[in-house]
């Protein structure tokens, strides 16, 4: 029993969120480097002779140097078992990212020291605050010219509405970057550039503030600035409050450079010390304790054709309670039947290994013959329960999609349904209509390209795409209402989604107001539940 409790207590499951190009994939790689999961970190854009990043696996990701799908990466470090959910930072993949955040217990927010809080970060931060999970901030790229650190803290507080507590403080930036001051240990970690790109672990030199030799190490101006900054911080900054951190009200802030490795290891050590083991989850039978003997998990992501040789489909599950054992029998709540979990894997990007056991907090991939949907619950509990469903986030771009070759209707329907079940796209059809021609909704335009690319590569189907002028979607919440009876503007469209829920597509907010004004009692929702 003690071993079971220890296994769960040493688990840390977190997602890394950021705007594109803030250095999220690079930070992920460096954490894997420290965990010994990889010997040498890759750089995202495949340069001559440099390795491609391990956490990106889809061909389109390697070509563009971006993360398109969420990877799940597990490694051991200092007695902890760490699960990183590497979410796509690219603005066009936020739907998958939103869902991945539902499986994390905390988030690491990566911010570019020159750019501050950017648009995508705000969106993802909002999803984290929806769940009240702890958020840790890594201000990256200090080895380049950066904004004033006080300005960056103020921006995080004002734009995101969260208090900040700097755990360390930068000494200079860009070519002048000398290292960071650890406020807790009252020590300086001096930066040494280890070659062009920090593929190996960085060295640290420790020294105390006010030491005479610091003028030589840092230069006198930087030493003086540091003393003034620390005095100001100690007097005026927020107090450190662990309870506020746990509830997502205060974010510990770290400065460093993921590319050169500087500050990554101290960040990891503090993160593990301050973050939480797996938390209880809400179900329709109240909160479920992670230390319960009953195994339970929910599906937060489905990915088809990860291995072209096998044409397979993997359902990614977050284990919420108990212990998983390969071959165990579980009850699939939504499917209302017992199933055997025989094919289970853990992944390092596209490489996978068979998993014989896993615990609350872990992410496992289960072979899916087509029975799972996003949000499904599996459990061994005698009285089954379902975890709160994952909301469907509103797409912002719409196009009419049809196959070029009508003889390939079967492959077209199969491919579209598969990609829709993964949640990469949302499919809508005319009320009572078929699948010959469908309307596809996506959160970002690049998903249309991925759809086209995958249908061609995985299903050998060419498609026609006609972009539509709709930008807003609303789910109709009145269950007994026939959408055909609604009084709507001529450019509003009535459709239904895969689950048979009725929706309206609008071209502008004005049309939404018009529909609500002219149809008494009509209830519309921005999120499909």
Tags for this entry?
529 residues, alpha+beta, eight-stranded antiparallel sheet, 13 helices, 31 strands, globular
Explain what this protein looks like in three dimensions.
There is one protein chain. The chain is of the alpha+beta class. The protein is 25% helix and 29% strand. The protein contains 13 helices and 31 strands. The strands form six sheets. Strands 18-17-23-14-15-22-19-20 form an eight-stranded antiparallel β-sheet. α4 (94-101) runs parallel beside α5 (119-131) and α11 packs across α12. The chain is globular, with a radius of gyration of 25 Å. Mean pLDDT is 83; it is low at 40-52 and 64-70.
Oligomer: single chain
Helix content: 25-40%
N-to-C span: 38 Å
Question: Could you say which structural class the secondary elements and strand pairing correspond to?
Answer: alpha+beta
Number of helices: 13
Q: Quick check: average pLDDT?
A: 83
Morphology call:
globular
Our estimate of the beta-strand percent is 25-35%
Point out poorly predicted stretches: 40-52, 64-70
Task: Strand order, main sheet: write it out.
Answer: 18-17-23-14-15-22-19-20
According to DSSP, the number of beta strands is: 31
The biggest beta sheet, please? Answer: 8 strands, antiparallel
Rg calc: 25 Å
Secondary structure elements and pairings:
Blueprint: H1 2-9, E1 11-18, H2 24-34, H3 59-64, E2 71-77, E3 80-86, H4 94-101, E4 106-112, H5 119-131, E5 135-140, H6 149-160, E6 163-166, E7 168-171, E8 179-182, E9 187-190, E10 206-207, H7 214-218, H8 220-236, H9 242-246, E11 250-255, H10 264-274, E12 281-283, E13 286-288, E14 296-304, E15 313-321, E16 323-325, E17 328-332, E18 337-341, E19 344-348, E20 351-354, E21 357-359, E22 363-367, E23 377-379, E24 397-403, H11 409-421, E25 426-430, E26 437-442, H12 446-459, E27 463-467, E28 472-476, E29 493-497, E30 502-506, H13 509-518, E31 524-525
Parallel strand pairs: 1-3, 1-4, 4-5, 5-11, 6-11
Antiparallel strand pairs: 2-3, 7-8, 8-9, 9-10, 12-13, 14-15, 14-23, 15-22, 16-21, 17-18, 17-23, 19-20, 19-22, 24-26, 24-27, 25-26, 25-29, 28-30, 28-31, 29-30
Helix pairs in contact: 4-5, 11-12
């Amino acid at each position: 029993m003690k071993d079971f409790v220890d296994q769960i207590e040493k688990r840390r499951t977190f997602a890394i969120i950021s705007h594109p190009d803030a250095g999220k994939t690079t930070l992920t790689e460096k954490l894997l480097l420290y965990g010994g999961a990889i010997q040498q970190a890759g750089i995202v854009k495949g340069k001559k002779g440099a390795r491609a990043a391990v956490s990106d696996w889809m061909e389109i990701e390697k070509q563009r140097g971006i993360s398109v799908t969420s990877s799940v990466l597990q490694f051991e470090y200092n007695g902890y078992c760490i699960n990183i959910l590497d979410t796509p930072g690219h603005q066009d993949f936020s739907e998958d990212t939103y869902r991945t955040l539902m499986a994390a217990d905390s988030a690491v927010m990566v911010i570019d020291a020159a750019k501050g809080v950017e648009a995508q970060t705000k969106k993802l931060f909002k999803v984290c605050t929806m769940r009240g999970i702890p958020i840790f901030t890594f201000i990256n790229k200090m080895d380049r010219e950066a904004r004033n650190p006080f300005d960056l803290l103020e921006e995080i507080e004002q734009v995101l509405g969260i208090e900040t507590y700097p755990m360390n403080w930068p000494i200079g930036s860009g070519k002048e970057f000398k290292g960071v001051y650890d406020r807790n240990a009252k020590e300086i970690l001096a930066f040494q550039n280890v070659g062009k790109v920090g593929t190996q672990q960085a060295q640290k030199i420790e020294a105390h503030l006010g030491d005479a030799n610091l003028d030589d190490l840092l230069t006198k101006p930087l030493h003086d600035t540091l003393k003034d900054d620390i005095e100001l911080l100690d007097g005026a900054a927020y107090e450190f409050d662990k309870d506020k951190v746990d509830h997502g009200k205060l974010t510990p802030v770290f400065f460093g450079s993921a590319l050169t490795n500087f500050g990554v290891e101290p960040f990891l050590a503090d993160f593990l010390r301050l973050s939480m083991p797996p938390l209880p989850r809400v179900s329709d039978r109240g909160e479920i304790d992670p230390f319960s003997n009953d195994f339970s998990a929910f599906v937060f992501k489905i990915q088809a054709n990860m291995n072209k040789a096998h044409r397979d489909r993997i359902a990614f599950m977050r284990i919420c309670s108990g212990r998983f054992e390969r071959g165990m029998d579980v009850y699939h709540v939504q499917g209302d039947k017992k199933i055997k979990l025989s094919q289970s894997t853990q992944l390092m990007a596209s490489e996978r290994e068979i998993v014989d056991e896993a615990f609350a907090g872990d992410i496992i991939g289960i072979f899916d013959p087509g029975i799972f949907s996003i949000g499904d619950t599996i459990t061994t509990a005698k009285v089954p329960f379902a975890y709160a469903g994952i909301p469907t986030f509103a797409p912002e771009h719409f196009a009419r999609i049809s196959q070029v070759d009508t003889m390939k209707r079967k492959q077209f329907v199969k491919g579209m349904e598969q990609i829709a079940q993964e949640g990469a796209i949302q499919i809508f059809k005319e009320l009572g209509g078929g699948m010959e021609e469908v309307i596809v909704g996506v959160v970002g335009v690049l998903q249309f390209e991925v759809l086209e690319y995958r249908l061609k590569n995985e299903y050998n189907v060419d498609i026609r795409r006609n972009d539509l002028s709709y930008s807003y979607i609303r789910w109709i919440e009145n269950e007994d209402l026939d959408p055909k009876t609604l009084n709507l503007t001529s450019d509003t469209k009535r459709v239904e989604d895969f689950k048979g829920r009725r929706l309206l597509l609008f071209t502008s907010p004005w049309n939404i107001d018009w529909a609500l004004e002219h149809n008494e009692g009509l209830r519309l929702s921005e999120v499909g539940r």
